[in-house]
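Hello again, I could really use a second opinion on something today. Take your time with it, there's no hurry, and the full record follows here:

___
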Amino acid sequence: MTERTAQRAARPDESYRETVGRLAAAQKVAARGAPAYSRYVNRRLGKYLAAWAYRRGISPNGVTGLSALATFTGIALLLFVAPGALLGILVAALLVLGYALDSADGQVARLTGTGSPAGEWLDHVVDATKIVCLPLALLVGLYRFETVSVPWLVVPLVHAVVWSVLFFMMILTEQLRRARGTQSVADTSGRLPWLRSVLVVPTDYGLLCLVFVLMAAPTVFFAAYTVIVACTALFLLAASVRWFREISA
């Protein structure tokens, strides 16, 4: 099905609630290690936005474009606006919206049967770009407005490296699994998946989006941000060992 066909795919007699119901049935199962915000909040927000986009005939790639627009607008604000309460709220809102739309594009693709390698490629390119640009834009903004002392600017720099390596490892590991016919571990019912999701919350991109609200108190924000970076770095080290053993086996 082409994108033009997808734009005409919405059922004229279907209510928004019915579309949301069909999206719930079309959602893929969450990965077992998905952090709590991504699993319980972002997927739900993405579902509602996907229903909105579907009913307006917006293609999956169009939704990806909207996600990029919201995300990179928020990132640009970090470069040019001094830290403060208003900046924090705007950046957090734009990043949250962009992240929810990032979940929505795949849901629209599954609902309309228009998923494609090109769409997956575009989605990953946007993700790869934002995970580098966000900490680097934060670094430049903190330096321009002298929010923290210069030595502390190594924190967003480390974050850019850690995020890039982690993203590459996740994509490469998934591709190697597919090459040998192994699927990612799926969610299972019970207490353990919920507990795992909570334990990895400090590495959740959604939590990072929300923490920008703390920019009303820049010192508090940067302390929370530093904790997130440290936890993400520790997660990267642990995941490196586990995934290397998995691939070696």
